[in-house]
Amino acid sequence: xxxxxxxxxxxxxxxxxxxxxxMRRLEALTTPVVDAALADARLPASEVDEIxxxxxxxxxxxxxxxxxxxxxxxxxxxxxxxxxxxxxxxxIMLAVRAVALGDANVAVAGGAESxxxxxxxxxxxxxxxxxxxxxxPEGGAEADGGFTFPSLAAxxxxxxxxxxxxxxxxxxxxxxxxxxxxxxxxxxxxxEIVAIKVAADETRDxxxxxxxxxxxxxxxxxxxxxxxxxxNSSSARDGAAMVVVVSPEVYAALGRPPALCVLAHATxxxxxGDEAYAPVRALQKALKPNGSAKPLPEIVETSEASAxxxxxxxxxxxxxxDKLNPHGGAIARGYPLGAASAVSVxxxxxxxxRDKDAKAQFGAVTQGxxxxxxxxxxxxxx
Length: 382
Fold this sequence. Notes:
Layout: E1 5-12, H1 26-41, E2 50-54, H2 62-69, E3 77-81, H3 87-100, E4 106-113, E5 122-123, E6 133-134, E7 142-143, E8 146-147, H4 150-161, H5 166-185, E9 193-194, H6 213-217, E10 239-246, H7 248-253, E11 260-269, H8 278-287, E12 299-301, H9 307-317, H10 330-333, H11 340-354, E13 362-369, E14 373-381
Parallel strand pairs: 1-9, 2-3, 2-4, 12-13
Antiparallel strand pairs: 1-10, 4-10, 5-6, 7-8, 11-14, 13-14
Helix pairs in contact: 1-2, 3-11, 4-9, 5-9
């Protein structure tokens, strides 16, 4: 295969369901992000050959709708991907492969989720006398305060296998909030987030703020006698994240701007009960494909479902906390399901390419997905 270059990456602010993006359908949320990414890449919409799009709730093929709403040519191929929370990263890898194989010169890829406007899913009653039941994201049942992700049950098991305490998880969550708050004060997200309309709220993730440790420790566990709470696990969000991938010929014509290239990629299945550990297994596989070791990433981004997943990654790879989600993670920003891993790629692009103090040459994104799947990609800055 040839090479492929990620030369631009943008996202929206992440908003609570019923909050910042409450009236925005999927195309209204995503189209401005596509426009901004193409503008960063200095490419017109007419040059886009394919769009790959990760989503878990809309149904159908929203990639085509977004392509037309963004003014991409009618000839542009469009594909929607659903591997649950790894959908966005899978979409980006499909774009990389399409460009590397010569099927496209310019591709747009990523993911978005609009839980605020997504169609409801209702389980069909077995009889006329039963009450219909709502089905939440990832098949989770609706609970007080939001949806309970099945992955949190696996996170409980992971936390106990690591001998973690409730305080360990709360402190991990607090550090995530502190890093996200510091990054916002340093304007790290300024050129990453696309303001869909002119308003201060559009430039920052909804809900970022530093709780007191007492606030975290006072929260009730999600499961009886459990360790995870609404404070040390992630909450669902609306949001979109997209990148632009180009061929060597287009890359050269654009003057070879700083970019990310893919060094290795892996998908790994685990037992559904070990679902929370899947991001670790996938990254291990990506770093040693076919037995040949790859460079260790200097930055690792993940959209974690729980604090236990962060601890597992840090311990498994001896990653210093400043190098794992260095500007906060999903605990602080929120978890936009099918867009979650695409947000991680955009965050990695900012840390390795966009930021003025960018120094890292190698970085990784790893993501767990419902059902016991992990997806990981190792990137190099060029």
